[in-house]
Specification:
This protein is mainly alpha-helical. It has eleven helices and two strands, in the order E-H-H-H-H-H-E-H-H-H-H-H-H. It binds fe (ii) ion (2 copies). The site of one fe (ii) ion has 6 residues, from loops. This is Phosphohydrolase. It comes from candidate division WWE3 bacterium. GO terms for molecular function: hydrolase activity. Keywords: Hydrolase.
Length: 195
């Protein structure tokens, strides 16, 4: 059987087939949009295209709804689905690096892999900050409000601050700038994210 081309439309189609919860889908859209903006931010982003950076975000959790009671399968399931698609090795490696503390498949290494690792938790954190704003809107969220909540350990305590802060060491981007870029990317897509 011929393998399907994994363009953005195909990625969204796969996501929608496998994930029904709108909030979970929005998390995937958010990470995709953030990664697409980081592609533009880096002066030489490497071998993959901007569309492929976005696909990395769209699909990184595509199997999450199905595997949520079995976290050891998260990513493994996705990789099995992707066997039906034409996917560049570099992009497959990005998926293999996700949830790798559990799967042990691959430690994040490339810039895309570390950007995904750091912004994955941060997008969720920013949503949590938006939801405590008076209008519950992203528009009202500022870098300062995110950083202030970031320092409050009790706020959204399930969010792994360490994972986000690695942007400094692994990407050479200050936490302040990393938050700023992520927040701006999300604000530009507030309609898509329903925030
Ligand atoms: Fe995940
Ligand atoms: Fe995620």
């Amino acid at each position: 059987m011929d393998k399907k081309l994994l363009n953005k439309d195909a990625a969204l189609e796969l996501l929608h087939e496998k994930m029904k919860n709108q909030n979970l889908r929005r998390h995937c859209y958010a990470v995709g949009k953030v990664l697409a903006d980081f592609y533009d931010y880096y002066s030489s982003p490497g071998g993959l295209t901007k569309e492929q950076w976005e696909i990395a975000g769209i699909l990184h959790d595509a199997d999450w709804e199905i595997t949520k009671d079995n976290p050891g399968r998260h990513t493994i399931e996705l990789l099995e689905w992707l066997e039906n698609y034409e996917v560049p090795t570099e992009l497959l490696e990005v998926f293999r690096s996700h949830n790798s503390k559990t799967t042990q498949l691959r430690t994040p290494e490339t810039r895309l892999e570390w950007t995904l690792e750091c912004c994955d938790e941060l997008t969720g954190f920013i949503v949590a900050v938006a939801l405590v704003m008076p209008e519950k809107k992203l528009e009202q969220v500022t870098v300062d409000s995110v950083l202030k909540k970031f320092r409050q350990k009790e706020f959204a305590r399930q969010v792994d601050r360490e994972q986000i802060s690695q942007c400094e060491e692994k990407l050479g981007i200050s936490l302040n700038d990393f938050v700023s870029l992520t927040l701006e990317a999300m604000k530009k897509n507030s309609e898509l994210l329903s925030l």
